[in-house]
Amino acid sequence: MAGVTDVVFRRLCKRLGADVMVTEFVSAEGILRRDDRTRHYTEFDDEQRPVGVQLFGADGRRMGEAARKVIDWKEPDFIDLNFGCPVNKVVAKNGGSSLLRNCPLLESVASEVVRAVGQNVPVTAKIRIGWDQQSINAVEVARILENCGVRVITVHGRTRAQGYSGLANWEVIQEVAGSVRVPVIGNGDLGSGAEIERRLRETSVAGLMIGRAALGYPWIFREAAQYLATGAPPPPVSRVERWELMVEHCRMAVAAGHRGGERQVIQAMRSRLMAYSRGLTGGKSLRQRFCQVQSLAEVEDIADEHLNCSHEPGGRLEEEPALV
């Protein structure tokens, strides 16, 4: 979720009911070089706790040093190790899901980080079920991580070769949950409160991690909480609430200014706005406009234009597929 789960977006997710959150993943080498941009990725508000800082890298000793620096800077509630990222530029540096092909190296990294941070700060890890369909080894990897002292393991139910295509394999996730003593968190294709309730009911996972479903629909956390409490989803999100959050997100991002001046921030927000537009009336034309916005005023004008239109009875979202 690099470029997505920044400190501003996490504020919104927390408000909408997210229980535990993880920062954007951070390069251990960037931390050790004290790169200001890298350090920014570790930022969080105390109101977002419990929150973990996620690291990636392939040198266990240096990963441990980086974890210690992060703890000294920010005192996160846990350190999360990324062994799941499928992105080429991360894999090419022997990071992320690349380590699923090299269990001795993965074991070294996990052991060194656990040793470096000690017992006061838990170390967790996220993995995929394997490198490809011919090398599904999530159970083996999970047992290695457990033996290294990793306290919680999150399993994304796809292989690295799948990327984000196809369906998540929840049978393998369940197999992992039944093979280790530490809590296992399931991840993959969790796009509704009903799906979240089903996975908790049908598997022995200790919890669920929501990723891409929150990208355009952060209300998923609120929906999940209500569905688990009542067995029924909340009322659909109104177009007014959708637009208000879109504009608020842009205003908060500009105020934070982490990605430069207003123009740079709004340009960085384009993909977020396009994701939010899924489900709104005229979503296709909206996305065409959002991919060209340059200022906060433009976003506010588009919002005003659509909030003042009267062709959407009841203010509810039209039936356009949500991004999950």
Secondary structure topology:
Layout: H1 7-15, E1 21-22, E2 26-27, H2 28-32, H3 36-40, E3 51-56, H4 60-74, E4 78-83, H5 88-91, H6 103-117, E5 123-130, H7 138-148, E6 152-159, H8 170-177, E7 184-187, H9 193-202, E8 207-209, H10 213-216, H11 220-230, H12 239-256, H13 262-276, H14 283-290, H15 296-307
Parallel strand pairs: 1-3, 2-3, 3-4, 4-5, 5-6, 6-7, 7-8
Helix pairs in contact: 4-6, 6-7, 9-11, 12-13, 12-15, 13-14
Describe the 3D structure.
With 324 residues, the protein is an alpha/beta fold. It has 2 domains: 7-230, TIM Barrel; 239-315. Helix content is 46%, strand content 12%. It is built from 15 helices and 8 strands. The chain has helices at residues 7-15, 28-32, 36-40, 60-74, 88-91, 103-117, 138-148, 170-177, 193-202, 213-216, 220-230, 239-256, 262-276, 283-290, 296-307; strands spanning 21-22, 26-27, 51-56, 78-83, 123-130, 152-159, 184-187, 207-209. Strands 1, 2, 3, 4, 5, 6, 7 and 8 form an 8-stranded parallel β-sheet that branches. The longest helix is centred in the last third of the chain and has 18 residues, at 239-256. It is globular, with a radius of gyration of 20 Å. Residues 310-324 have low confidence and may be disordered.
